[in-house]
Design the sequence.
């Protein structure tokens, strides 16, 4: 007998809303070697907002010595002409970063914990428990200031140092982030090893602890599985996905990690499914095309390449 796919999932998704969190200006540019001038970053963010992205992570208020690409976070925020209805967010590692983010007038902040102990120590120089104690302080202060907090959870699908990460561990840590007041947990495939069955397992385990509406998936396309993982996430009930225009980025502390899932590739899939994102594919392509000469290499987005705009010409 010939096996056949049930069409029910695809039919069900038609007309449903889906949210894309654009992380290119932060997660993308943070991990590119090229120095991108602040004015070009401002233009990039403004073009992404014009393309219909309503959540944009614009920068990180981290140590400029450790992450020189993000040293202009305040200048970038000051230079932005903000668009109504767009939430501009930034990553903050601690209370000092939060204070800088508040001064810059961001609409949301994000903290970054990890699901594996070794990655946590290598990435932020703290063990998981220690980091959560510090992040609880950041959460409390952010909420007192009226800012929503997003929590990244790295290495949910595998750690470059420890290998497999149990879904139950991911669920437990996601629950602890929610308890401290995080509004959304981004389950992150830091090294791009996730596959669809695993997405189903991890989201399923986590959704027992955290409402699925409060979950986002942050995927990398290292092994070519990012879009398949999006589909598995949609099937599991996730409606928020991170992506970076052009497929910018990687992770300097995760050996072998390639770029983030490209916003263009995600929007192409969502459009094809008939889902409602409010994002113009042409608009995102234009934003990537404009930035590309500043990056120093062709961007990996398949849609960008297919439109013949990936050579920086
Ligand atoms: Mg990433």
Sequence:
């Amino acid at each position: 007998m010939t096996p056949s796919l049930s069409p029910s999932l695809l039919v069900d998704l038609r007309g449903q809303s889906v949210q894309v969190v654009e992380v290119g200006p932060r997660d993308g540019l943070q991990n590119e070697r090229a120095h991108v001038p602040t004015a070009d970053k401002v233009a990039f963010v403004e073009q992404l907002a014009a393309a219909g992205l309503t959540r944009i992570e614009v920068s990180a208020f981290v140590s400029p010595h450790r992450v020189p690409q993000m040293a202009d976070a305040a200048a970038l925020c000051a230079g932005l002409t903000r668009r109504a209805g767009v939430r501009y967010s930034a990553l903050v590692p601690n209370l000092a970063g939060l204070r800088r983010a508040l001064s810059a007038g961001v609409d949301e902040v994000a903290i970054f914990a990890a699901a594996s102990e070794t990655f946590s120590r290598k990435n932020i120089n703290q063990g998981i428990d220690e980091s959560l104690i510090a992040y609880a302080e950041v959460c409390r202060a952010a909420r007192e200031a009226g800012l929503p907090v997003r929590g990244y959870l790295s290495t949910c699908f595998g750690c470059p140092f420890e290998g497999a990460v149990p879904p139950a561990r991911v669920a437990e840590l996601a629950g602890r982030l929610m308890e401290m007041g995080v509004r959304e947990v981004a389950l992150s495939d830091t090294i791009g090893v996730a596959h669809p069955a695993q997405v189903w397992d991890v989201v399923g385990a986590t959704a027992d602890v955290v409402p699925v509406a409060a979950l986002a998936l942050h995927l990398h396309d290292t092994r070519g599985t990012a879009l398949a993982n999006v589909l598995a996430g949609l099937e599991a009930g996730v409606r928020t996905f991170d992506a970076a225009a052009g497929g910018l980025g990687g992770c300097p502390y995760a050996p072998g990690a390639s770029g983030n899932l490209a916003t263009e590739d995600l929007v192409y899939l969502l459009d094809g499914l008939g889902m409602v994102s409010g994002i113009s594919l042409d608009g995102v392509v234009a934003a990537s095309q404009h930035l590309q000469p500043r990056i120093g290499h062709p961007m990996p987005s398949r849609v960008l390449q297919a439109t013949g705009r990936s050579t920086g010409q």
